[in-house]
């Protein structure tokens, strides 16, 4: 099997000679700390050897539950947010037909997502859409108490029971949550739902290769064994025994840190030239944003879909403040072939493209963009993927996870916690007068009154 590849040559040209190699000792120390569990956040290192520890029997169990949902439902709503949502969506949208939901006679259920926002219109439109559909729900929450997800799940559970009765609902609602704690676990036990456990030592944004990602991906009809195999191979390829010169996760971590610390590049744009990768970049944003953005440090992770965003963000990238670098995820071979047709009249003047694959035009757009952006002072990293399938997405997932752990430790932060996400929740609960938040409610009301 081939592997994904990393090209950092168009980024290192912005750094002093030898910068990347100079990171080798720090990278090695970070890798040892991860392996030995001596780093900050060491109670959340379950992801590190997760791919090689997943058994075939476990994957078969997930596939069996997925089959039940697939047989009984035409629509599955995956309720979850953040790490309990983005990985599944990244893989499903990365592999699905772009028009999956419009295709009739589908062999796979339609996968919809909820619990990742509090939009009243969104939830109202979703529940209306589900009114005449045979639907099931995968309720995903590690804490089991996240407001966005719990709110959506309450609505969906009620609708499912109202439409199909409690007995049928038991067969089509699955919970993925903590083994003991939280409302999602209590509900699953009380209602008798099939459930899976999110391991204690795997944080949300590192959990796509647990049932959190694997069950929805299997329900959508994709091969979770191949996904895990890809991740497992990347686990080997990025291990501590792989020399720095050949270790792509180590080198990606090093080049990011070099660009940040030496070249003052504070923003990383992950860009793709395949719209199917939009949600992969959303997953990546969360992985790096929640892992690195702390102690007033961290590269700000953002994303663009090219060529679409070259017509919106392209100007800024080419000529705006020189605080950015770019990481392009490039897919070498699309799964389909579409040739550009001949036109006798050639009114659009495009006959020079006749007989070419659309992807050839896309590849020239990509190369042209890389060169232009480098000329404009934007360091460029390229991660190339042979083709979009489960195996290579598995590789890509593990590659970014491993690099993220190393990169965070080089920055001397705890890459595995996310204390900052609690601040908005505390205010929201205080404003909603949630029981237990009486003092906060009083304080926030006083603050709002004095702000007037
Ligand atoms: O990465 C994380 O830990 C977070 O993004 C969580 O996944 C997110 O907040 C959802 O939490 P929970 O799974 O507890 O509902």
In short:
By secondary structure, this protein is of the alpha/beta class. The protein contains 18 helices and ten strands.
Jot down its keywords.
10 strands; 452 residues; single chain; 18 helices; 5-stranded parallel β-sheet; 48% helix; alpha/beta; 5-stranded mixed β-sheet
Structure description:
It is a single chain. This protein has 452 residues and is α/β, with parallel strands linked by helices. The chain is 48% helix and 13% strand. The protein contains 18 helices and 10 strands. The protein has a 5-stranded mixed β-sheet, sandwiched between helices. A 5-stranded parallel β-sheet has the order 3-2-4-5-6, with helices on both faces. Helix 12 (248-261) crosses helix 16 (390-410). The termini are far apart. The structure holds 5-phosphoarabinonic acid.
Gross geometry: globular
**Can you give the helix content as a percent range?**
40-55%
- Average of the residue pLDDT scores: 97
Q: Please trace the helix and strand order, writing H or E for each element.
A: EHHHHHEHEHEHEHEHHHEHEHEHEHHH
Continuous helix count: 18
Number of strands: 10
Strand order in space, largest sheet? 1-10-9-7-8
Give start-end ranges of low-pLDDT stretches.
Answer: none
For the biggest sheet, the summary is:
5 strands, mixed
SSE order and pairing:
Blueprint: E1 5-7, H1 9-12, H2 19-22, H3 24-36, H4 50-53, H5 56-72, E2 75-79, H6 86-95, E3 110-114, H7 120-130, E4 135-141, H8 147-172, E5 173-177, H9 183-191, E6 194-197, H10 211-219, H11 224-237, H12 248-261, E7 267-272, H13 278-292, E8 300-305, H14 314-319, E9 324-333, H15 358-375, E10 380-387, H16 390-410, H17 422-431, H18 438-451
Parallel strand pairs: 2-3, 2-4, 4-5, 5-6, 7-8, 7-9, 9-10
Antiparallel strand pairs: 1-10
The protein binds 5-phosphoarabinonic acid.
